[in-house]
Each structure stands twice: as structure tokens, then as C-alpha cells.
Amino acid sequence: MLSYEKALWQQGMNQVAGVDEVGRGPLAGPVVAAAVVFPKNISLPQVRDSKRLTPQKRAELFDLIFEKALDIGIAKVDQKDIDQLNILNASLKAMHKAINSLKNRPKVILVDGNQKIPNLRIPQISIIKGDSLSLSVAAASILAKVTRDKIMLTYHKKYPLFFFDQNKGYATKTHIQALRTHGPCEIHRMTFRSVKMLKMKQERMSLT
Question: 0.90 exceeded by the pTM?
Fold first, then answer.
């Protein structure tokens, strides 16, 4: 999990930031990105791709990563920007914001996936399945996931009809049924196909 970081550290690049985002797939809520810079002597064997961890384990590691990291940046892009930019560009914007929120400018960035972050004058290495291959990227995925889940729990209090505490905005059966019954709320992504279709159906029904 440290092979990318170690290779860069050996080249004198001490500030290596791993960056990842969560929230591309949901029908509601923001996309959240995180950036993490670790010291050279880091050892966090339990850190891995956030999708492979239980919510309880992610919460434990969230605090541990904050304790061990040299630098952390977390940023979000809300559903309005997602609808305006599209989800790919919104995800890249969130990662850009997370990098810019670091206290110190990193020497190089490890980016999860096959895309590089545009308009960022820092060398980047894109790593497919980076959250399974790089400790820094895996840690970023945990921070982003825990942060986004907390945001969706807050939204659940405002919009309890959609069960965001359970589905976190993803297209579960109960979420789709709530959309059919109530139509979308303010945090739904109106450009997403299923949300758009259900909204149009509700508008047609209101006219009959």
C-alpha cells in the first residue's frame, strides 16, 4: 500500500498527497473529496479502500488518520454544481478544492482513477483502483466517505421522507419509492436520469 509513496519519497518528494472522492453514484447530496499527506514512517495496516470497511471501522480510522497525517484537506461540491457541471467535472472540482485546502502545497499528487485534476499546477499520477493500491488514497477515501455520510445524516433530519440515514442518497428501493410518492427534494440531482424522469412523471400527474 506504500509502494507509490516510497518510490516518490526516495526521489526527494516528501509531500505526497493521496486524493479520492465519494458520491458519484447517488441521486442526492454532494460529492465529497479528501486529500491526505502522510509522514515517511507511517504504518496504518488497517487502512484500505473505504468500501471494504464497516461504518464502525471507518469511523475509528477517520480519527486515527487525522492523528497520524501531516496534512489533510476535505471539500465538497453540492448538487447544484453537480447539475451544472455534470458529475465527472463536479468530482474533479471537489478534488481540486481538497488539494487547495491543504496547509502546504504537495510535491506530487496520487489521484484515484484514470483522470487527472485539471488546472492544478502540481505533478499528478493517476492510479486505477488507487484506493486499493495506495495508503494515501485509501485514507482519503475513508475521510471522504465518513464526511459524506455525516452530511447525509444531517440531511435526513431535514428530509426524513427519503431515508437518507439509510441510503445516503443512493438509489435503493425505499429511496426510489419515496421519489415516486413525494417527488425530488432540494438536494436531489435533477439532471440524473431517474430523478428527472420521476420529476416529469409527478408534474404530469399534477396537471391531470
Answer: yes
